[in-house]
Amino acid sequence: MSTWRLGMIAPLLMAVHTQAWSQGFGPGGGPGYGAPPGRGFVQPSPPPWMFVPSPQPPAYQPMQTPRLLNDTPEYCEELLDDISSLRMRVAAVPPTVDTLASEGARLCQIGHYRPGIMRLRTALMLLRHER
Q: From CA 7, how far away is CA 4, in angstroms rounded?
């Protein structure tokens, strides 16, 4: 927008807002809303929804026992137990789950815990998806 147009619009907007302010058009409406600053300013009252207290979010329950996800043989056994318990709940176990679980168990037995856990967790994720 050119500066000439802005020079024409600004006084017009100022006149409209001054007239609306003096007549009391606004959130409160009526003559009690306020007056232009030249004749004494009356502070508008805040809307009533500002006084309603917001509900507090529920407190988080602390975990009973922290579960450490590290590369240990105990975690491999825990994942194998989870897989065997989920196998009983699934009607048709995909063949990839059997392959991943057996390969993960084999890797954990020979001491390669991280890749074994990765395969066991993938098998567990696939079983949970099948359920």
A: 5
Residues 6+ apart with CB under 8 A from 23: 31
pLDDT tens-place string over residues 30-62: 544 444 555 555 666 766 666 667 777 777 777
Q: Is 24 helix (H, G, I), strand (E, B) or coil?
A: coil
For residue 93, tell me if it sits in a domain.
yes
- HEC string for 58-114: CCCCCCCCCCCCCCCHHHHHHHHHHHHHHHCCCCCCCHHHHHHHHHHHHHHHCCCHH
Question: Total structural domains in the chain?
Answer: 1
* Maximum pairwise Cα distance, the chain: 89
**HSE, side-chain direction, 13 A CA sphere, residue 109:** 7
Range of the domain at 111: 73-130
Q: Is residue 93 scored above 60 in pLDDT? A: yes
